[in-house]
């Protein structure tokens, strides 16, 4: 493994010094051919001068690359990026030419006699600088591709982990124990509801098991399956909560992460008190930009902290470049879920 000195990889520094020196030598040879100048008589001076120019161009081009990556990335507009590269290249060449002319004529007092005209020096500057910027762009491109591949693999692992944790949460012994207790009571008290309860429980588990190859589902699909979960909760809590849905027509086809709605409702029931005397009000709003879950804040003193919570959903949506919005207004708790696909 290459050693690190002040954050720089020694191997990379050596490669850069060697390649930039070799490039400066090639540019010096080209310049002497064009200018028909004496190469060997001023070899050390010319090589030093060309190397300083090459290093300065490298620094300028690298900073130009950082600036363009931030403000005009290729993913935004390829044509604009290429045009920006050309404009930046021209401005850097003009600026460096002005600086070096000022140093040569004003500081070192070298007479202009015998030196090439401005147009020739500018052409040589562009010819020298263009390959440097091109190399930086290629390096950035290949590194971006490698990072994209690595991020893709990481995302796949995160999705698999999420599905695994979600499955464990749904087959939580506590959740299953409560469901079976309700079912056991219904069998004697209301066989018809017991049959409905069994179907709803089966449907919820079947939905979880079907998500292995689905990174996203429509809001309509989520809400359809959520009906089974709400039915299970109604059988368990009876009249201890109210549930309303407000829909914006056309938004049901937008996509979200599977089980988002069920996990959010699980959080509501885990962390709040729900009684028939003071029902817990839960509201879902399917809007144009978000689908939101809003509930009254009635904190439970012994809230169950286990299982998947809001942090898992936040992490999952970050894989799609989206951020969940959480608002706590004192007596209301609101979670806004962005759509990952329109």
Automatic annotation (TrEMBL):
Gene Ontology MF term list: phosphorelay sensor kinase activity
Domain of life, per lineage: Bacteria
Entry-linked InterPro entries: Bact_2-comp_sensor_kinase, Sig_transdc_His_kin_internal
Keywords: Kinase, Membrane, Transferase, Transmembrane, Transmembrane helix
Claim: Nucleotide-binding is one of the keywords in the record: no
Pfam family, one: His_kinase
GO annotation, cellular component aspect: membrane
Transmembrane segments: 12-35, 47-68, 80-100, 120-139
Ranges where the Signal transduction histidine kinase internal region domain occurs: 163-240
Signal sequence coordinates: none
PANTHER family: SENSOR HISTIDINE KINASE YPDA
Designated name of the protein: Signal transduction histidine kinase, LytS
